């Protein structure tokens, strides 16, 4: 599979069980979803979804491909999440003042995680 968009179509089909719902979820029309599914099935030479009255159900091959697509999706989402904040890191000097109760019971316990996530932050 060389196209992430094809995997997204297959995931939407498997998750919704419907060509119409998959199309709505992806923001495309039903013809596009059907055409992409047919192209994938032709490329692999196997049926990925069974068409049943009112919906679609993955075949064994479709379930295998969906499992692979879900792994790819997790990796893509992890990369997007990791990269999205790279240019928005907190850094610099911050001065905190508060009452002792808040400092001792809320701020101090939270500092290790904060400084771990933002090593360029100076308190």
Walkthrough of the structure:
- The chain is mainly α.
- It is 64% helix and 10% strand.
- The protein has a two-stranded antiparallel ribbon. Strands 3-4 form a two-stranded parallel ribbon.
- Helix 1 (4-16) packs across helix 3.
- The termini are far apart.
Morphology call: elongated
Biggest sheet character: 2 strands, antiparallel
How confident is the prediction overall: mean pLDDT? 89
* Strand arrangement across the biggest beta sheet: 1-2
- Please indicate the percent range of residues in DSSP E strands (runs of 2 or more): 5-15%
Computed CA radius of gyration, to the nearest angstrom: 23 Å
Helix content: 55-70%
**Helix/sheet category:** mainly alpha
- List SSEs in N-to-C order: HHHEEHEHE
Instruction: Kindly state the number of beta strands.
Output: 4
Continuous helix count: 5
Q: Would you spell out the secondary-structure blueprint of this structure?
A:
Layout: H1 4-16, H2 19-26, H3 30-44, E1 49-52, E2 55-58, H4 60-84, E3 92-93, H5 100-117, E4 121-122
Helix pairs in contact: 1-2, 1-3, 1-4, 2-3
């Amino acid at each position: 599979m060389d196209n992430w968009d094809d995997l997204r179509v297959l995931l939407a089909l498997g998750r919704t069980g419907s060509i119409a719902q998959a199309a709505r979820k992806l923001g495309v029309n039903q013809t596009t979803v059907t055409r992409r599914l047919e192209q994938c099935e032709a490329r692999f030479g196997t049926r990925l979804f069974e068409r049943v009255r009112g919906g679609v159900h993955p075949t064994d091959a479709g379930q295998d491909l969906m499992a692979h697509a879900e792994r790819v999706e997790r990796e893509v989402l992890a990369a997007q999440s990791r990269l999205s904040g790279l240019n928005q890191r907190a850094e610099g000097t911050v001065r905190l003042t508060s009452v002792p109760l808040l400092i001792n019971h809320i701020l101090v316990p939270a500092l290790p995680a904060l400084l771990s996530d933002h090593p360029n932050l100076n308190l």
